[in-house]
């Protein structure tokens, strides 16, 4: 379909919101109006709160954007009031001011959770955690950060399926899918959400479950920011005392690479499946040199479990961080291996069926050869992560086959110093990804699914769910957001009609 017809389709579907673009004065006016009606919730560019909010984004692409103001709701009724206020102009034929919705701010690309000149809704003040009387459900606020949630459920020997590093918030993580230590046992994090409290484009507050607004409930499991502002998530809890895990590093040698390829191929073989085991091979390139390590996690209190011995028996560097800990401390420890923020970053993702060790050797060698061409870019770090894809139970919008245990997922990420290199880095990572995908296609192992939370804007993850699933998400959007507020009024992220 040509770009002309795609744009025409978007205009026909969402004419009332898309017809005009709000001017800067309208953003200023709406900020002042919200400030007058909800005192203390608006922050302007000359304030410390505004500057702190911007500085807390993970990438420079997001930090560079300057919203006209930042709205920080503390309760669902305030979110509802905000939506009604911001859409009021559209009802009278005037353009609706655009806005963005942020939680943890960990998405890499520009505009994912911030906006230039519009209003950014910073959900992080809505961070409550309430356990149900039977402790089977944790109801968390729409801006809750999982590294703050875990310490509140650990005393009950419980966990929820949240982020594996600090700073990841519930909103973007779960509406994109969510990979957790328990994902080989229970699937994507979104597979394990009982209910959502959602503010729709009308300002109406609804409660979506498997039996009430079930179409929206399912759409929110992978449909990203396209349907409303989620103000509460009812998460399944799972028993967990101590778990084992951490990071182990190795010398980057052909012998080690061959051993890693053989070990991962065997780990992904269904006959060796262990639903307590989560792991990754982490390859790095920085300052013209290469590194390799493993992240290994086991959700039972067993040190050095047999399933990981093909990896841990490889001669390694000392020390490593492998230890028994509760989930909160495990996440904190894992976060110490990652930077708090980066100047610039981009990443690409793909999925594939497991095969023999030769496949992984081929992928690694192709990555190694390709990264050398990027060596002179200032501040460059390139990471190639190979990990299992969650074993879904099917309760999502992805269109994946439930119960598959032999599907892997790779992510190629680059961090670097200067915006002037954006185009170069993007082209090279896209080229490396294409080479990998061609290898997989030639072997009959390539899978079209693209995990949204790791995807580049050019990868169309929602389209990768399949035509039927995308059409279903579009139908849900038209039903609950007939004027397309969350398609054009919230322009960031992956949209349904592009």
Biggest sheet: strands, sense, closure? 8 strands, antiparallel
Radius of gyration: 22 Å
Number of helices: 17
- Overall mean pLDDT stands at 93
What portion of residues is helical?
A: 25-40%
- Tell me the distance between the termini: 11 Å
Record the strand order, biggest sheet.
Answer: 15-12-14-13-17-18-16-19
User: Based on helices, strands and strand pairing, what is the structural class?
Assistant: alpha+beta
- Gross geometry: globular
Number of strands: 19
Structure description:
The chain has helices spanning 3-13, 15-18, 24-37, 48-55, 60-63, 76-91, 146-153, 170-176, 183-186, 214-219, 254-267, 309-312, 327-335, 357-371, 422-442, 467-480, 485-489; strands at 42-43, 69-71, 99-102, 119-122, 129-131, 137-141, 158-159, 193-199, 205-209, 229-236, 238-239, 243-250, 277-286, 289-298, 323-325, 344-353, 381-388, 407-416, 446-447. The chain has 17 helices and 19 strands. The strands form 4 sheets. An 8-stranded antiparallel beta sheet has the order 15-12-14-13-17-18-16-19. A 5-stranded antiparallel beta sheet has the order 5-6-10-8-9. A 4-stranded mixed beta sheet has the order 1-2-4-3. It has 498 residues and is an alpha+beta fold. The longest helix is centred in the last third of the chain and has 21 residues, at 422-442. It is globular, with a radius of gyration of 22 Å. Helix content is 33%, strand content 21%.
Write the topology of this structure.
Blueprint: H1 3-13, H2 15-18, H3 24-37, E1 42-43, H4 48-55, H5 60-63, E2 69-71, H6 76-91, E3 99-102, E4 119-122, E5 129-131, E6 137-141, H7 146-153, E7 158-159, H8 170-176, H9 183-186, E8 193-199, E9 205-209, H10 214-219, E10 229-236, E11 238-239, E12 243-250, H11 254-267, E13 277-286, E14 289-298, H12 309-312, E15 323-325, H13 327-335, E16 344-353, H14 357-371, E17 381-388, E18 407-416, H15 422-442, E19 446-447, H16 467-480, H17 485-489
Parallel strand pairs: 2-4, 3-4
Antiparallel strand pairs: 1-2, 5-6, 6-10, 7-11, 8-9, 8-10, 12-14, 12-15, 13-14, 13-17, 16-18, 16-19, 17-18
């Amino acid at each position: 379909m040509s770009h002309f017809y795609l744009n025409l389709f978007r205009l026909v579907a969402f004419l009332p919101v898309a017809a005009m673009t709000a001017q800067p004065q309208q953003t200023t006016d709406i900020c002042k109006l919200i400030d007058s009606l909800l005192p203390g919730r608006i922050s302007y560019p000359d304030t410390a709160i505004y500057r702190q909010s911007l500085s807390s984004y993970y990438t420079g692409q997001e930090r560079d954007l300057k919203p006209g103001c930042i709205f920080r709701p503390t309760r669902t009724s305030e979110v509802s009031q905000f939506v009604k206020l911001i859409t009021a102009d559209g009802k009278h034929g005037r353009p609706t001011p655009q806005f963005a919705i942020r939680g943890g701010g960990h998405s890499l690309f520009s505009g994912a959770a911030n906006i230039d000149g519009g209003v950014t809704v910073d959900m992080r003040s809505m961070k409550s955690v309430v356990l149900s009387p039977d402790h089977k459900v944790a109801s968390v606020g729409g801006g809750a950060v999982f590294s703050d949630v875990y310490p509140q459920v650990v005393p009950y020997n419980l966990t929820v399926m949240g982020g594996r590093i600090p700073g990841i918030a519930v909103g973007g993580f779960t509406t994109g899918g969510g990979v957790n230590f328990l994902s080989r046992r229970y699937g994507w994090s979104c597979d394990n959400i009982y209910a959502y409290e959602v503010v729709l484009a009308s300002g109406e507050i609804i409660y979506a479950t498997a039996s009430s607004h079930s179409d929206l409930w399912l759409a929110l499991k992978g449909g990203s920011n396209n349907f409303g502002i989620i103000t509460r998530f009812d998460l399944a809890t799972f028993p967990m005392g101590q778990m084992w895990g951490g990071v182990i590093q190795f010398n980057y040698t052909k012998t080690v690479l061959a051993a890693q390829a053989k070990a991962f191929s065997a780990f992904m073989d269904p006959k060796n499946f262990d639903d307590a085991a989560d792991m990754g091979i982490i390859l790095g390139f920085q300052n013209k040199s290469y590194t390799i390590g493993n992240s290994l996690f086991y959700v039972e209190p067993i040190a050095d479990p047999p399933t990981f011995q093909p990896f841990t028996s490889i001669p390694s560097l000392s020390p490593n961080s492998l230890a028994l800990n509760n989930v909160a401390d495990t996440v904190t420890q894992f976060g110490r291996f990652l930077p708090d923020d980066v100047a610039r970053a981009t990443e690409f993702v793909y999925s594939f069926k497991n095969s023999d060790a030769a496949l992984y050797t081929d992928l690694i060698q192709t990555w190694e050869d390709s990264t050398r061409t990027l060596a002179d870019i200032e501040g460059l770090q390139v990471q190639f992560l190979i990990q299992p894809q969650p074993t879904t139970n099917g309760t999502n919008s992805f269109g994946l086959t439930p119960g598959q245990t032999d599907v892997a997922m790779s992510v190629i990420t680059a961090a670097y110093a200067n915006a002037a290199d954006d185009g170069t880095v993007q082209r090279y990572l896209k080229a490396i990804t294409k080479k990998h995908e061609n290898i997989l296609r030639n072997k009959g192992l390539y899978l079209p699914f693209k995990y949204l939370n790791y995807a580049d804007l050019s990868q169309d993850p929602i389209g990768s769910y399949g035509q039927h699933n995308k059409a279903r998400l579009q139908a849900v959007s038209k039903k609950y957001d007939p004027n397309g507020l969350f398609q054009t009024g919230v322009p960031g992220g992956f949209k349904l009609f592009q």
